[in-house]
Records
---
Amino acid sequence: MTRSGVIGVAALLVCGLLSARADTGSEADWRREFEQASRHHAEGEYAKAEKAADRALHQALAGQGRTQPHVASSLNLLALIRQAQGQPEEAIALLREALGVNERALGVHPNTLAVAMNLGESLEAAGHLQEAMGLYERGLRMADTLHARTPRDESVHGWRQRALTALVDVHTELGQAAQAQVYNRRLLDEAEPASDAVRVAALTRQAQALQVEGRQEEAMALHRQALALRESNDPNDPALVLHYHALALWHAQSRDDAAAQAWFEKALAVVRTDRQGASRLAQAHILTSLAQLDERRGRYTDARRGYEASLLAYTGLGETPDAWLGRAQVLHQLAGVDLAQRRPADAEQRYLQALQLLERALGPDDPRLLPVLDNLMAYYTNRGQARQAMDHGQRASELRRAQIKGAP
């Protein structure tokens, strides 16, 4: 998860110290142990962190009710240590206890908000999405209340953004796109300016939602806003590819091939600097798209060169379903170029290779085989090879009947 519980440690340390009414000696002892535990936790020394956090908890409990916020802070830190040690259920139990302590001792308070958010994140990490959503909603209500009291408090505004982002994420995970967009819209409409990272993420989510709804021009305007923010922060950010690619596809669909090519080339320049597997796959996709533009404009030699480069990129990804599907697409496209350049024997072999790869990736009964089967039927019909045409045509008909039968 991107919403790290470490932020909660710092917030609780400061707020807890301000809220407690311990005597000076106990306060100093608790502070020393808590800071030592926090330092060990940050350094990944979890066994030492656990011992120091236990000592801090005992110091807080010794306050006989006067140091309840310190008790909650110590429990919260212990929970984060348990989480780091791979004990999520113990972490959740400790956070539940810490939240109860703070609700009784402090009510609506930054400490209570911090623990609620940490508990929500621990529940989300453990797969308890519905319960996590409830904690995030409570956190947002507290953040709204605190914001109304102290509207200029930047830390409270940060918690509001964190709660909204968490609600967007969990509703998305639950497949509740409409509700996710309600919270995402609020992130964009907040009166106070969000951080660049929060705003970029919200703009990107909103753009993608608009694309799904078919509102392409509005979506592209948001992609451009997100793009400007990303470019100003890091012109080599790999995430730029998402926006470049969306803009390129939109221009390609609008038949503005020159603009589409420019955006595809910008995306290609970024992915070529990153050698990770996902970037290599993106590079192969973009090379295919550029070749398709050349083919559409009748530049068959350039298109062939582009498809061959894309095929090489997919082959370099190894024997995986994504690589098979990519190679099948490129071979299918290359067969079209072969036919345009009067190389029918090459086209036939590419169609057959594409079909074999699709069957390997998807199985023999997937409707995504239909374009290749249809083209093979047309190819053999034009060549006067009736038996082969009938074989592929019959198989395509059976797939279509199965598709119709299985439709809701």
Note: The two ends are 36 Å apart (CA to CA).
---
Amino acid sequence: MTHDPALDAHEHREHAEHAAHAKDGFISRVSITVAALAVLAASAGSLETVEASGAITSASEAVLAQDKATDAWNEYQADSLKKHIYGIAAGAGGPKADGYQAVAAAQGAKQAQVHRQAQGDELERDRLMAASRVHERRHHWLTIASTLLEIAIAICTVAIVTRRGAFWAGSLALGVAGVAVVSATYLLL
């Protein structure tokens, strides 16, 4: 069984419309509440999906940045070995000593550039991992908000069946809590 917030919202709205035709003021108010809560639950569910996707995307991009950093550090090490080998060859003297010394110097200059690139890739990795953690925290809080809103809808249904205002009040309280969690998710996290 798949969970489709948009389809759920549509079904709840239809139930609310049927109940509204009963000409009972209480039932009409609770039915409107169900419809409003369904829209809020669908919105929170959509935001939850967006944040989950953001977490996965940022984490994947962080892995790619780490791979780039690893490649750059490997190149740095290779350039270091080349610099030392050419330095040893230059130190041994001979007719090609000056050429070896020039290659060793060029490898040293290249190393500095690769070093900066590797550090930049590591900074990008850290930035992306931090973004992924923010998305993941938001996803978890939005899951809580969606759950509160879904429970509020269920309790509204009980209020319609039993015609008890206490259930309606409870569902309103849970709905407000769900909206508060959604708001806090983006204002505080």
Note: The chain has a mean pLDDT of 91.
